[in-house]
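Objective 1b: paired records.
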Amino acid sequence: MSYTHLPKFDDLFVPILDYLNQYAEQAFQWRKLERPIADHFNLTEEDLALEYASGNGTVFLDRLSWSISFLVNAGLVQRPKRGVCQITAKGQELIETPQQIDGYMKDFRREYQKQRHQQMADTSSEKTAVAPVTEAIAESDATPSEQLNNAYEAIRSTVCEQILDTILSKSPYEFEKLVVSLLDRMGYGGKVADAAQVTKASGDGGIDGIIKEDVLGLGRIHLQAKRYKRDNGIGREDIQKFVGALAVAQSQKGVFITTSYFTKEARNYVANLNGITTIVLIDGEQLAGFIYDYGLGMQEERALVVKKMDADYWDDMLDSD
């Protein structure tokens, strides 16, 4: 699901300051600002539950966290103790003219990143590479977490394109073997030995692979695999033939996988099968994504570990008087 409709982290500056200013004498656990700030933008619980594709947490809470951090660094919000925030006198002064806050924060971020660049340049052996990175961060409307997520998505998208190109260079039979291996990798078949098998190339009756769901083979998932060029869509007729093949095989579960796409008519037909037969459609984009995510034929090039503070660990320590 897309989260592009959510407010950016710099859109939160004014609402955060405005809310804290209403309770200027109070200090708040920063996470308790999530709901009132979300209400300012009329966000739903579903909006707040949206997560980054990389698994790096929920998007809105991440943006809220970075927004508060920037406000703290700019001196408009303070942290009386860990995890707690409160508006400062400077913040109270600026919120009286909220139209000035965006300009103030942009100037602060630019100066802050300039100082960070200088610190990094003083210690970096690759000084020429530092400036473009920090300048991009200073001008971006994305949080550092989002920039990391965007980089991940860009890499994933590029590799998925390579996956599809490679599949199209292989034989149809190799493609059938690939999709059977993928379903097996995804856990269909559980711990059943030899649960996944490719049917014989001739006389397969329109079934390219079978996944046994239990030891006795009473439950089975039948597969159809079409290695088509990306602009050659799968229509309703192809799906109807597959439904017929499932009926002959006395199966009610089918997965139709293609390197191309399914037409609207094909998807509508599947949506209206009224539950007698369940068919899952996987197009080329989804296929490549599954192959990438489940690591089929993939090598891990680099693992980047992003850490955050363990709240339970630090909260157990006594605060300073």
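Objective 1b, second protein:
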Amino acid sequence: MTLRLHNKLFISTRPKDSSGELTDLLSREGATVIEFPLIEIKAAQISEKEKRYFTQPKQFHWIIFTSPNGVRYFFGILKEYTGSHSLPDEIQFAVIGEKTESILKEFGYRASFVNPGSTAEDFSKPYLNHIKAGGTKPNILLPLGNLARTTIQDQLEGAANCTRINVYNTEIPINPDRRIIQQIEEDRYDMLIFTSPSGIQNFLKAYPTSRKQNIRMVCIGPVTHNEAINNGFHPLVTAQKSSAKGIVDSILNYYISKT
């Protein structure tokens, strides 16, 4: 078996212990992966008003989950306040992406609307058409992270009553590993892997370089890619599909094109 990434070293900036699938796929191709978490996910503080979204969920017709973290932290908070993961049967779920759908299933629920894309832009128009076909103006709960954009709320304005709640916060870890920063400075790596705009922003805080054009990076999709470009970087690879497999496939295609 040919190991197509033999002797390649990748640095993953994903949150701690979130690189398992990515590391496994890269390792199968002979690569080495170092974890350099530049994102830390923490549960958000919920206000008294927001508690009612969990204790009185019948006010909502839909819950939209845009990420696996949104699912996990929402149900964690739900159990904290109600003692279970149970929700009224009439509530429907919409999700972005297959990974988010699979996490929702772990809590015993199935999505009524699954968008195969990976961004809020991919999701909004098809979902808008879906709810318009229902002929009503639904109440929708959006459990998000504190850095999530307002794309979905903006696109659904007028067609639905959207309530946003931040169920988790994305922060920069304290004291990023200086050994890995030195490794980057000494150019002892092949690519840095970024899977969110906040990863790009936190990298600049941990490693404020003026040689941005020299940083070799792969981005998970167009949103992260655009954040990199806007900050002066020049990504070598942007995954065509926003998933661990999509990242690895795009990396492989990049090296194949160089041979």
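The chain has two domains: 9-39+172-258, 42-170. The chain has a mean pLDDT of 93.
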